[in-house]
Design brief:
Helix content: 25-40%
Largest sheet: 6 strands, mixed
Low-confidence stretches: 1-8, 620-638, 644-713
CATH architecture of the largest domain: 4-Layer Sandwich
InterPro entries: ASMase/PPN1_MPP, Metallo-depent_PP-like
Strand order of the largest sheet: 5-4-3-12-13-14
Protein name: Sphingomyelin phosphodiesterase
CATH superfamily of the largest domain: Metallo-dependent phosphatases
GO molecular function, one term: phosphoric diester hydrolase activity
Number of helices: 18
Strand content: 5-15%
Keywords: Glycoprotein, Hydrolase
Number of domains: 2
Radius of gyration: 28 Å
Organism: Candida verbasci
């Protein structure tokens, strides 16, 4: 009888299984245990900063594959408890929202796809962890199988002697929340806005005058009533003036003044055939002050004002790296993150304004990484989305040896091969120069492509982003060898900004272009001294002719030649050898504003890629530019791709390597004024916190019906 009951008991136990209570874990326990594990990694002395960073990435990857909905909360809390800036922690890891440019969703998706212990983790930690200073060796790339052999004779077509004019605008950075009398000497980014403050109390009696409520509402300037006697709710150290400040972006009044000047010159004698715009419509506000609505409004308002003044002048634009939401983030199309709305918005707007046709609109919608068009004269202009080499774009850190995860490089090569076969000249426009804020691998790929198709096909290259009036030269190989004339491949022109942000005078330029070769015959820069508007009793800015590149550098025996790569190579030699020439170049960069002079101009202008610039700056008296490099055998150091090969190169991990992460470090795009940088919460950023044992922590009481959208994988 006993055995009968025993048998029945065994059978019943096989039908019903009750999980042990100790195996059940709540969301709050997952959060607390994960945060503790991250702090444990911080406290260990056995790992260097880079390995700590990679270990945290591994934890993030596990969470992204199991509980992606909890990862933003876990990493935001860990970041704050580690005494990093609270608001920036939320921006780096926080849940997605249309009200702030948070990147928690992008970070979650990135770590779910990347290899934290390999080259993906190496690059991410170097660029996003201030304590990790080991830059991995950049794999060598061989793209020769992606194009036909370069002909022995590859000279460009000769100049015709006849020219036409092309306008070049860049970095408008329209600040739609610019407020007259707000603080322009603030302690956070961006000044001259309603939310900005100075952390130090200003004098009780801080008198000001010369402020007027002016406008261009009737298509011309109208000086408004005086604001000198207005009682503001909050005193300012330096109240923002109507046409702008050197610590702020472009107010609408300044943009109207700029474009009115351009319109008048065009109608009188310059006669621009078209304009190129190398990106930069969105202002430099910190991510916590940038909403999706504001981002789109600044884009749309900028383009509509351009159309209003330029009218029949077609504008050929490119994509700014901040002109997207969240800013700087651009996922590949095969990722389950849909940014189609952004490119539908741009293509619809540009088509409505008459700048592109249906065919080009389809390119923008489908490719997202760029488009090409052919002007009435037969010049092909190729516009590229430079977020593909932007190191702030988190989607550039997964499977990093897949050198063309967006498909843009193959498309660009095909466009250039097609032009080569049809004896067609091309211009390339993009926002971010590859020697600024760029990933080495992608920058080197770009440089190789330019080297292959120069000088016959690629007639000119144009960038923006830096706010300065500059040029950069590309030399053969990886650009780190001797910078001789024989090795000079091509050059790029970087347009000055209309925005005065970072202490530069507002500026724009135009080119005199040969009708046959499409080479640049001369470059002309106009600017206005913004400081002169501070005491002119509310009058309009005076736009002045700044300089002609050909005339101001005045090279011998160059009267009828184009301003080609040889011209800029000779200029760079003079900058390197003659201090007065270096002084002249730097004054032209900033449009004659006062500023500190530096000794690194030569390296900046003779380095087309970030790798070449870093190599150039490693000198005995420039230790701050020295960056240790790690030669490892755990990844392929050479990559060869071609039409008959798979572009994706498998990463070969070293299993013995310790897999080890630190908080994202963003430069913040802040203007350095004479006060300490401080993020001020003006009440709009609703980030609930509660005191924890270590600093502050976000409130980790999570409701079961949390509807925050984190993409499931």
């Amino acid at each position: 009888m006993y055995f009968l009951f025993l048998l029945i008991g065994v059978c019943l136990s096989s039908l019903f299984y009750y999980a042990p209570k100790e195996l059940t874990i709540t969301d709050e326990e997952i959060i607390n245990k994960s945060i503790k594990e991250l702090h444990d990694i911080d406290s260990t002395n056995d790992l260097n900063p880079c390995l700590k960073c990679k270990t945290r990435l591994q934890i993030a990857k596990t969470l992204s594959l199991t509980r992606p909905d909890l990862l933003p909360q876990i990493f935001s809390t860990w970041c704050i408890e580690s005494n990093f800036n609270e608001i920036q922690c939320h921006m780096n890891y926080g849940y997605p929202t249309d009200f702030f440019s948070t990147q928690g969703n992008d970070f979650t998706k990135m770590v779910s796809l990347m290899n934290p212990s390999g080259l993906d983790g190496d690059y991410f930690c170097y660029y996003h962890d201030t304590n990790c200073n080991t830059l991995p060796e950049t794999p060598l790339i061989n793209l020769s199988k992606m194009w036909p052999k370069k002909p022995n004779s590859y000279l460009p077509v000769e100049n015709s002697g006849e020219v036409f004019n092309v306008l070049h605008l860049s970095d408008i950075n329209l600040q739609i929340d610019y407020r007259i009398l707000s603080e322009s000497n603030c302690s956070q980014s961006l000044c001259c806005s309603p939310h900005c403050r100075n952390k130090f109390k200003c004098p009780e009696f801080n008198e000001f005058d010369g402020y007027f409520d002016s406008s261009y509402s009737k298509n011309h300037f109208e000086k408004g009533k005086s604001l000198n006697n207005i009682n503001t709710k909050q005193q300012s150290w330096k109240p923002a003036r109507q046409f702008g400040e050197y610590s702020c972006d472009t107010p609408s009044l300044l943009l109207n003044s700029t474009l009115q000047c351009i319109r008048d010159l065009h109608q009188n004698h310059l006669d621009f055939e078209f304009a190129i715009f190398t990106g930069g419509t969105v202002d430099h506000s910190d991510r916590c002050f940038m909403s999706k609505a504001k981002n789109l409004q600044e884009q749309e308002t900028t383009y509509r004002i351009l159309k209003h003044y330029l009218d029949e002048i077609d504008v050929i634009p490119t994509f700014g790296i901040r002109d997207i939401f969240p800013m700087n983030q651009f996922p590949q199309k095969n990722i389950n993150l849909n940014l189609q709305w952004q490119f539908d918005f741009l293509s619809d707007l540009w088509q409505e304004l008459g700048w592109i046709d249906v065919g080009i609109s389809k390119q923008i919608r489908y490719f997202q990484f760029g488009y090409s068009l052919i002007t009435d004269r037969g010049l092909k202009i190729i516009s590229l989305n430079s977020n593909i080499w932007n190191f702030k774009n988190l989607y550039n850190y997964w499977n990093i040896t897949n050198i063309d995860s967006y498909g843009m490089w193959k498309w660009l090569i095909n466009e250039l091969v097609d032009s080569e076969r049809n004896f067609q000249r091309c211009w390339i426009i993009a926002h971010l120069p590859p020697n600024h804020q760029s990933l080495p691998l992608q920058a080197n790929i770009f440089a190789q492509i330019i080297e292959r198709f120069s000088p016959r096909v690629i007639a000119a290259i144009f960038f923006g982003f830096t706010q300065k009036d500059q040029f950069i030269i590309q030399y053969g190989s990886d650009g780190t060898d001797t910078k001789s004339l024989e090795k000079a491949v091509n050059h790029a022109l970087i347009a000055p900004s209309i925005s005065p942000y970072s202490a530069v005078n507002p500026s724009w330029k135009y080119y005199s272009v040969d009708k046959q070769s499409f080479s640049i015959m001369n470059s002309f820069t106009y600017y206005t001294k913004l400081g002169a508007t501070f005491g002119n009793n509310g009058a309009e800015p005076i736009w002045e002719f700044g300089y002609s590149t050909r005339d101001i550098y005045n090279l011998e025996n160059w009267s009828d030649k184009s301003l080609n790569t040889e011209f800029y190579h000779l200029i760079s030699d003079k900058i390197n050898q003659e201090p007065e020439f270096n002084l002249l170049y730097q004054r032209l960069e900033n449009r004659f504003t006062d500023g500190d002079l530096n000794n690194d101009s030569y390296c900046k202008i003779t380095s087309f890629t970030i790798q070449a610039k870093k190599q150039c700056m490693i000198t005995d008296d420039q230790d701050d530019y020295t960056e240790p490099k790690q030669q490892t055998d755990n990844y392929l150091t050479s990559i060869t791709v071609g039409n008959d090969q798979n572009v994706n190169v498998d990463y070969v991990p070293n299993e013995k390597e310790e897999i080890r992460f630190d908080d994202l470090d963003y430069e913040g795009d802040t203007y350095k004024n004479d006060t300490n940088i401080e993020i001020i919460n003006d009440g709009k950023v609703d980030l609930k916190v509660e005191k924890g044992k270590i600093g502050k922590s976000v409130n980790i009481k999570r409701k079961s019906n949390n509807k925050i959208a984190i993409d499931q994988l």
